[in-house]
Amino acid sequence: MPLLDATHSAFALLFSGDATLWGIIWISLKTSLIGLVLAAPVAVALGYGIASYRFPGRRVAIWLAQAALSLPTVLIGLLLYLLLSRQGPWGGLHWLFTQPGIILGQFVIAIPVLVAFTLAAVQAADPRYAETAIAHGASGWRVMLTLLYEVRFGVMAAVISGFGRVISEVGCALMVGGNIAGETRTITTAIALETSKGEFAHGIALGIVLVSIALLMNGALMLLQGDAPAARGRA
Q1: pLDDT in tens, 13-28
Q2: Which tens digit of pLDDT belongs to each residue from 42-55?
Q3: Are 234 and 50 in contact (CB under 8 A)?
């Protein structure tokens, strides 16, 4: 099928409200968002802790957090497959080839991104923020909230990058989810399947959705940031 014809058919599928297509999109959004929401509090607190406290092995922790960014998602999928399989230690959960299994995979994939970005944002923050909070008698919990608020745009960037990472990965979703129609078929696994079948219109339609999500998320971040650099310059 010529590219222009396939693209035209892709838009037709999107605007026709094709139930199968939008069902795949919904599964992807659902599993990615739940995995990200579960990972965010843990990873942000972990990134803050590594950046703010001195402890034995801190440099190793920073190295591991940054190195985990390049960990292949298919390897994470393999490890989770072995854990969730019938003979694995988590086999009793019966999460293999289910949406909870995909959510677990998205959770694991999102953690390194959120930790590394939060770590970088907190390390780059002006230390006077924490010092001022401590001088006013703030508790450790209050100091953390104050500092995270000051670096909120960095944390937002971490969350958006984490979402982009989990919704666009294919290896883990394929191995743990099994690409079951109507159950665990996500945007990326569907693109791989439809392209292998020669159904390029479906693949292009889902690709358009992925690009649209990326543009919307980054546009939302820009709106939230507003004119922050200029405001800091005036200050």
Answers
A1: 999 988 999 999 999 9
A2: 999 999 999 999 89
A3: no
Q: Is the pTM of this model over 0.85?
A: yes
Q: Tell me how far apart the alpha carbons of residues 147 and 155 are, in angstroms, rounded to a whole number.
A: 11
> How is the chain classified by DSSP, letter by letter?
--HHHHHHHHHHHHHTT-HHHHHHHHHHHHHHHHHHHHHHHHHHHHHHHHHH---TTHHHHHHHHHHGGG--HHHHHHHHHHHHSTTSTTGGG--TTSHHHHHHHHHHHHHHHHHHHHHHHHHHS-THHHHHHHHTT--HHHHHHHHHHHTHHHHHHHHHHHHHHHHH--HHHHHHH---TTTT--HHHHHHHHHHTT-HHHHHHHHHHHHHHHHHHHHHHHHHHTTHHHHHHH-
